[in-house]
Amino acid sequence: MVTRDDQYRDDGLTEPHPSRLSPTHPQRVEIMRRHADAVASGVPVYADPKTGLSVFTATFLAARGWCCDSGCRHCPFTVG
Predict the structure, then answer these.
(1) Which CA distances in Å does 50 have to 17, 25, 57?
(2) Among 21, 57, 54, which Cα is nearest to 38's?
(3) Closest Cα partner for 63 from 41, 42, 35, 37?
(4) In this structure, are residues 55 and 47 in contact, taking their beta carbons and an 8 Å threshold?
(5) Is the Cβ–Cβ distance between 43 and 56 less than 8 Å?
(6) For labeling, which of 31, 34, 51, 57 is most exposed (least CB within 10 Å)?
(7) Which is nearest to 51 in space by CA: 72, 71, 36, 31?
(8) Number of domains composing the chain
(9) pLDDT (0 to 100) of residue 9
(10) Stated pTM of the model
(11) What digits encode the pLDDT tens for the residues 7-45?
(12) Is the separation of the CB atoms in 78 and 26 below 8 Å?
């Protein structure tokens, strides 16, 4: 488990790790728009455009303070 004492990735609050959301993902632009809108609105999740499932924002995950090792798309912690 990664905790608050460990470092966030330098771009952890703005960019998903490429292993979690590929730069070439066909819906990347829409996903990142939804993420930005959720962060700006202060809500912890947004709906994935393909599945409709809730996805946590990087801001929410950082505030939680630890990595759950579940492969969250926007995990701000160092991805192993």
Answers:
(1) 19, 12, 17
(2) 57
(3) 42
(4) yes
(5) no
(6) 51
(7) 31
(8) 1
(9) 85
(10) 0.87
(11) 788 888 999 999 999 999 999 999 999 999 999 999 999
(12) no
Residue of 38, 41, 42 whose CA lies nearest to 73: 38
pLDDT tens per residue across span 41-70:
999 999 999 999 999 999 999 999 888 889
- What domain range includes position 67? 1-80
Residue 57 near residue 73, CB atoms below 8 Å: no
Tokens 């809108």 found at = 37
Of 3 and 27, the one with more pLDDT: 27
Q: Which amino acid is at 7?
A: Q
Residue 7 DSSP symbol: P
pLDDT higher than 80, residue 78: no
Q: Phi and psi for 3 in degrees, rounded to 5? A: -115, 175
